[in-house]
Amino acid sequence: MRLHVGCAMWTHRSWQGRLIAHPLPVHERLRHYAGWCDAVEGNTTFYATPTRETVESWARQTGPDFRFVLKLPKVVTHERRLVDADAPLRAYFDAIAPLGSRTHALWIQLPGSFTPTDVPVLADFLRRLPPGHRYAVEVRHPAFFREPRATRLLEAVLAEASAEWVPFDTTAFFSTPPTSDAEREAWTKKPRLPLRTAALTDRPIVRYLGRDAEAETVAGWQRWVEITAGWLREGRSPTVFVHTPDNADAPLLARRFHDEVRARVPALAALPEPIPTGPLTLF
Questions:
Q1: pLDDT by residue (tens digit) across 145-154?
Q2: Strand ranges (E), 113-201
Q3: What are the two backbone dihedrals, phi and then psi, of residue 227, each rounded to the nearest 5 degrees?
Q4: Record's InterPro entries (predicted)?
Q5: What are the phi and psi torsion angles at 67 (to 5°)?
Q6: How far is the C-alpha of 260 from the C-alpha of 268, rounded, in Å?
Q7: Domains of the chain (ranges plus CATH)?
Q8: pTM recorded for the entire structure
Q9: Spatial strand order in the sheet of 239-243
């Protein structure tokens, strides 16, 4: 029984010296993040496929139970829209190979212009992907959430591929107007979609966006605490990523979410202890 929690990144300016030691060389930052959380969203792979040497460094900094949910490159999902993308896909799979089992799922985030009429393209794409990985799909067109026929169509394609549907829950964020610069910026960029809470596989993945105010973030995730506890009791192994507009306290919040679920499922193992930000003293 495992619940993995994490953030949208493993390094952030506001964490330095407060949550994670500072200064740290680039090749140490992920190791220190992994003391706080045991999963991370691989958003950087959307913008550029990393070198194999970079990925080898990620593997060295994390234990075998750490989870990467790595986004497929935008050239595949957004520019070529899942068609004629064999060359960039080969480069991507070769680059991430050193992670081995740490690659929990490969995340296919599709643009808002990807509609239910495009689902056959997704079905063909999923059938051609290497079988040694798990896959998770995030869609953003409202019809997938609001039209039962479109929902069933996508679910059937994902079920055939044993792939998960990744919800990005922004309902708490959009429940009241923004009150900070970070919230105002996120207000213009984040998707505003209906809530989805169903899991398709034994390893559901949830992305949750709260507010910069901790109390509002915690209040908004209460449904996910109960749902996640229920998944664990069913024998599932979920991964939950906690976002806020400024992400200043995201690792703390991710750990708090884990603690709240653990209070309901006492058999759940505790997270690792963070690496101290400074030298230990006797007094």
A1: 999 999 999 9
A2: 135-138, 164-165, 168-169
A3: -65, -45
A4: DUF72, UPF0759_sf
A5: -115, 125
A6: 11
A7: 4-264 (3.20.20.410)
A8: 0.96
A9: 164-165, 135-138, 103-109, 67-71, 39-42, 4-7, 239-243, 205-209, 168-169
